[in-house]
Known about the structure:
The chain has one domain (about 5-95). It contains two helices and six strands. It has helices spanning about 20-30, 80-95; strands spanning about 5, 15, 35-40, 40-50, 65-70, 75-80.
Amino acid sequence: MSGRYVLDEEGNPREEDDLMTWASWLEKAPNRVVAQTETGNGKVSTVFLGLDHSFGGTVPILYETLVFGGTLDEQGDRYATRREAEAGHAEWVKKVGGK
């Protein structure tokens, strides 16, 4: 297992064993951003990472939410699924004072 992932046409993650194919996809992937929200207290960004961040876990961790700016700068969470990432994004927007 390579730990490298791409999104198919429907936005579903699939593992990609070929390094060059993965790198080429990652360089121009148009659908990696799940959501970005500007608030008065910072920006919340949620993206598909392209690499498994479970570090040997049984479920790949492929999405990440991070806060940029404000009192929660550089805080965030990681998720296994897009649905979890979307829900997590909404929670972080609330935490930083967005709607």
